[in-house]
Amino acid sequence: MNMKAFMDKDFLLETPTAQTLFHEHAEKMPVIDYHCHINPQQIAENYKFRNITDAWLSGDHYKWRMIRSNGVPERLITGKESTDYEKFEQFAKSLPRAIGNPLYHWTHLELQRYFGITKPLNEKNCKEIWDECNALLAQDDFRVQAIIKKSNVKCVCTTDDPGDDLQWHKKLQNDPQAPCKVLPAWRPDKAMKIEKPGFAEYVQHIAAITNKEIKSCRDFFEAIDERMAFFNEMGCRASDHGVDYAYCTLISDAELEQIFQKAMRGETPTPAEVEAYKSMILVHLAHGYAKYGWVMQIHYGAIRDPNSRMFKILGADTGYDYVGNRPCAEAIGQLMDTLEKENALPKTIWYSLNPNDNAVIATAIGAFQGPEAQGKIQQGSAWWFNDTYNGMVQQMTTFGELSVLGNFLGMLTDSRSFLSYTRHEYFRRIMCNLIGNLVEKGMYPDDMEFLGKIVEDISFNNTNKYFGFNV
User: Fold this and answer.
1) Alpha helices, H only, 45-194
2) What pairing do the DSSP bridges indicate for beta strands 295-300 and 181-183?
């Protein structure tokens, strides 16, 4: 048996059918990154990275988590007292031990596609690869906008708070040299997290930017609606909600007002009150999404910041989260049914961090489909801890067996890095291999014309049509 070469042109493509589907169809399709955490200011200002650590390790909690698992002191991971090279060196030392982790594949796809480096990164060649990458990053054609163009990206949706002024989006929309369409995506977590310190101050921030006096929950919702109208004018096509678990607890307007006033006085609502408030504002916001034709994305199932000591030191989104397992099936259905009864169920994508929810979501979406779109209600791509090789295979297999794989919206980066667009390639290779294997096993006809269209649709066309990006 001949051993395959490391990450060659047919990486992950096990059959001739898979190779044809990828090289003749998926590979050529542009990228739409409809959910990410990149900074629009860096796009607008055409940011130039100071080195590969700046491009790779700044803000990347996937990598921080992996390095920590190798017993590396925090000062050499996120510490201000360590140098960029020291941080890169610890990454290079740690990476070879991450066998099977998608980080290993992502890293080497990025080295190959952006820097032309085909050798595996390790402690021995760390300085050599550091120098090679930095020499290229010093050039103007490795600034942010050039990276976006090189990656064949046609549209990016950032993650933006309702209180943001979207000044960088305005600048990009007025810039004829902008590398792609850059749109805001509505992320109202601060408006929903009534239990968090600073909620009352956030309400006053919304009051100030809308020039409204907010004395009641109704006032607050009306001010938020005004911000939603502004986002819509700025081209927003999607909302995104990061919720801890699926919920739908409906209460009266009077009860809602009592909870709101309690929080505005600086008192902490009970867990039941928090869930009720979050349910009510989510239902209210969904009416707006349906009105504007936006897509509602709901990411749930993360247990965030359980390490209280490190949270006090580093804050949120630093790699200290894990998979939750609360029951979700009833709440998912109750939320969609509530909106369906009011003719206000928007196009919706459900993402669970727990892969055990795959079948729940894949079947729940079939109970609420509508004529507004092919696959109006979607199961999102394998998310966060699930965007591994097996995680993607499992998600697509369940989606295909219980729903309609041809309507799938494909991949997104969910990343803070401009070098992460190769994650779309990683996904497309896995997707082509999955479909290719079905064909070669005689489980689907060898109709390459139709199969090629399905692959191109999942890679790009379905997303472009579903969100209405028109790129």
Assistant:
1) 52-56, 61-68, 84-94, 102-115, 126-137, 144-150, 167-173, 189-192
2) unpaired
Instruction: Note the pLDDT tens digit of each residue in 268-301.
Output: 999 999 999 999 999 999 999 999 999 999 999 9
Say what the pLDDT of residue 460 is.
98
CA–CA dist 427, 446 (Å, integer): 22
Q: 435: number of CA atoms within 13 Å, CB side?
A: 29
Secondary structure element (H or E) that encloses residue 153, with its range: strand 153-157
Asked if residue 172 lies in contact with residue 43, where contact means CB atoms within 8 angstroms, the answer is yes
* Parallel, antiparallel or unpaired: strands 181-183 and 238-243: unpaired
Tens digits of residue pLDDT in 241-267? 999 999 999 999 999 999 999 999 999
CA distance 153 to 8: 23
Q: What is the pTM of this model?
A: 0.97
Q: Which amino acid is at 155?
A: C
Write out pLDDT tens, residues 134-147.
Answer: 999 999 999 999 99
Alpha carbons 67 and 196: distance in angstroms, whole number:
30
Compute the distance between CA of residue 265 and CA of residue 469 in angstroms, rounded to an integer: 42
User: Nearest to residue 159, comparing CAs of 304, 285, 243, 36?
Assistant: 36
